Amino acid sequence: MATTLLPETAQKVLTQETLRSAAKQSQRCLTTPVRLRRAIKKYLKEQEEPHMKRKVLRLSESFSQIKDVNSQLVTATSQQLVEDPLQSVDQSQRWKIKSSYGDIGLTYRDDETIAYVASRMPAVFSACHRVLKEVRRRLPEFSPARVLDFGAGTGSAFWALREVWPHSLEKVNLVEPSQSMQRAGQKLIQGQKDLPLIHSYDSIQSLTKSIKKSDREHDLVIASYVLGEIPSLKDRITVVRQLWDLTRDVLVLIEPGTPQGSNIISQMRSHILWMEKRKCRKSKDGADETTKDLVTQKNGAFIVAPCSHDGQCPLEKAEKYCHFVQRLERTSIQRTFKRSKGGQPLRGFEDEKFSFIAVRRGQRPQEPWPLDGLKFDTLKEQQAKRSPEDLEIDLEELNASQQADLIPFEEPDPVNYDSDVMESDVADENEEEEDERGHADLGGGWGRIIYMPVRRGKQVTMDVCRSTKRDGSEGQLQRVVVTKSKNPALHQQARKSIWGDLWPF
Asked: What residue spans define the domains of the chain?
């Protein structure tokens, strides 16, 4: 992993606010929306299931068993199947599913569904909300009207969709083989206002048979926390190929932030990019010189997030795995039924770790890199330009800057903590919009901070996954060191950056 010391630079207009707004992708501690908390509370009250703590624990053990199955997959076979599936599967039968989703993986009974709603639904919602919020920030012009939610479960992704794009959704197709999960999802949305048109199916096959061919493409397709429940790698790839065929614009895959979940995302990422590159080569070979450029623009795929490039994942060689975290305030329901490890008091929050990929059809935009032509003063040059008035200390401004430099993710007070205070729906609907003054484009120049930056004195060290080529075809994991003396502007940016944010280099 290369170590880069950012060079000395001189000055060009670039406001700190614009840079900060564009780079910020992480979110502070998320509170489950009032309407979702009330829906969960109402649903659980109607069930009146005894021994809920035991059932929540049993569900957690089931998830652990799925992790064990995934870890037993042979790495060599997995890599061969992802990179070139034609080598290991007969061409005439290569993508015919012998077992549909629902016959394989984890099936949910009524008691497991109730335990899932009580313990896991807010956490899965938080991960989906974090990912979809980033897709919206990276693609400000993207407003999906038709959406497919594969492995919809009790509707965690659907609730996140309504929070992120409340006005654009027109039709949502849900694919969920568990009838128990379907019933729970329907009860949770009962009484909600301004719902889009919703159709539920138990498999992709039933969906494609029920709708016209012209209606099968969706602006957004999302599969959250579901691929890991399919123990066969071949079936996973088959499902992802089908989901990609049903995608008109953006495909989002989300898995738990474990080595197994990250490995699944990495494999699906490799396969989609390989598949589209192969399709582009075939289309170019069959096209004449005048239409080759047009064919290239229509075909292909590129990564919207988290990767800044479409090359091989550099973390594979580093023997690390790509994942992120979203802190979530625990609801009173979660605190009632969940247990802490070691008999310690249950914290008022939990950190949901997740891995994800957002893929878009087409070619990656060729846009200027964020620091192209930009020059910054060094600290010494800034001090030489100061006037006597600049040396006067503004105590209010000093206190504000010190507060901004505090390291995030401090533990809330467990005594006074309560996420279920009686709030009005108006507060949810009129929530302040985030600062959109800056926009991180998709041209490849924005790297991703993979782990929490390390602050030592007046320097900040970050591990950044970034593109090394202008076309975004290759990437590298670099250790970037930013010092205050060399570049005070970027040093201030680095001090405020956390795990999951973008970096303009």
From this structure: 34-78+96-363, 447-503
3-state secondary structure 427-469: HHHCCCCCCCCCCCCCCCCCEEECCCCEEECCEEEEEEEEECC
pLDDT in tens, 367-388: 877 777 666 656 666 566 665 5
Amino acid at 94: R
Stretch 177-201: mean pLDDT: 91
Dihedral, CA atoms, 425, 430, 432, 437, nearest 10 degrees? 140
Asked if residue 231 has a cis previous peptide bond (ω within 30° of 0), the answer is no
Residue 116: which residues within 8 A CB-CB, separation 6 or more?
A: 59, 108, 153, 154, 181
- At residue 99, the pLDDT reads 39
Identify the CATH homologous superfamily for domain 34-78+96-363.
Vaccinia Virus protein VP39 (3.40.50.150)
Q: For residue 444, which amino acid is it?
A: G
Instruction: Of 32, 203, 180, 65, give the one whose Cα is nearest residue 116.
Output: 180
Neighbours of 429 (CB within 10 A): 11
DSSP-derived pairing of the beta strands 301-305 and 349-361: antiparallel
| Six-digit token string for 52 | 């809920």
Is 495:405 a contact under the CB 8 Å cutoff?
A: yes
Q: Which amino acid is at 97?
A: I
Is residue 421 classed as helix, strand or coil in its secondary structure? coil
Provide the mean pLDDT of the chain: 76
Q: Which amino acid is at 158?
A: F
Q: What is the spatial distance between Cα 41 and Cα 117, in angstroms, rounded to a whole number?
A: 10
Tokens of 472: 């975004």
Q: How far apart are CA 427 and CA 405, in angstroms?
A: 28
Q: Where are the alpha helices (DSSP H) in 246-378?
A: 259-286, 292-298, 315-318, 332-337
Any idea which residue has 């990656």 for tokens?
A: 364
